[in-house]
């Protein structure tokens, strides 16, 4: 105890346990605009805790990398694996046994899932995610896409491109498109692990600070020693996981969550797979059109109703489990309310209203699509995920010859050389967890978008990832078994005819079965060395498929728990 309080001004309170002590896990750095505001959050949160007789300590920090910075670079090969490092860092921070609750500071791509995977190993403690909010809107998304495509075509230079990008990503706060970072916020609310309506309150505003204050105060009310203790392990149950998937479908969120939700669920002892996603996608309509599914960003979405309106509509249609525990006092019903700033400068809530703009957000009676925005596609090429929410109806089915590549850079070179000036399905293999860490292939979208604008039928099939940024390009991603493991994609050759259909869920090479079965897969991809990637060799070696969450740490943990369980006699206290 003396070690733990030596540097603290609240020694007496800590030593004599006069109030709850909150363990803060921070992922602050200057590389992520969304995480830069966290620099001063811990000192603010300590003050907020003292207001209600509690204390707070920074338990530890976790790394947080930006896929927007590393896209197309060597660092992206470590992106998915950083999730395990974040989970392990979270566990190390919480291992000191000093805390009655957890405050998790994180927003972006692998960070929120990693924080939850680590925190759930301390599931006897209540926990809450504290977001920092999106930046204000910058360059309109249609203009951003136009500039990127002009650059791909060589019609403008890097200076013009940089100017547009800087106008898009221009301050602290979360990027405003509905990619993985903002989908994380949606997931956290649907899981009941954030304050209601806290996801999309703009950064550095009075309401945002009031929400952080309210979150700290609320956490002290549900602490380990409180009369209303709400352990994270009881919040994240099967029904909460279903609610999170329903939210993903209704809002057309990132395909990365077909990896992250299974990984988080497994950390809570729950198994879900893409069959579950498909069944829910068939039942849950698409209610939102947020960029890249539509022209408007999360700020516009929030202005016209946001997540409270989505939750209100889904609850009225009995499409969410209401009988779940959340960090909010009245359960899921509290999440169908809008946050406002009261006269006392504290957060006040009012009932959510219907959407004020049906071009961005619609009710259950008139959705954009009768089904969810993410589909399962499968066939003799394996199983993959297809984000259909932004794809036009006439491109839901693509049947064309394939061109097979083993890097995204090779695709760009082929496009620039005019080799893709035809109907084509671009297949990029050797991009799965075992091959090179499963990097996101953001850089392909402008190139393939140019080909679509030229009138060609184009699609992408890959065992890699594409996040929520696929936009209008038809794409089957996360295809498994991955090529590295001898999966079917490794047997494709240039010119083979493939059919990809989101309507029927078809992902097949159109070939005589005996001829296809006689094919031999290409040699496994060799992961490149250098820039730290070799440090993750053991992670690549044991990574499970994307459908199982793609977490080497989780795979080894599950195996160890199973082996220990086999050795425990019935009735033994554990």
UniProtKB/TrEMBL annotation:
Enzyme class of the recorded protein, top EC level: lyase
Keywords on record: 4Fe-4S, Carbohydrate metabolism, Gluconate utilization, Iron, Iron-sulfur, Lyase, Metal-binding
EC assignment: 4.2.1.12
PROSITE patterns according to UniProt: ILVD_EDD_1, ILVD_EDD_2
Pfam families reported in the protein's UniProt record: ILV_EDD_C, ILVD_EDD_N
Transmembrane portions of the chain: none
Protein name, UniProt field: Phosphogluconate dehydratase
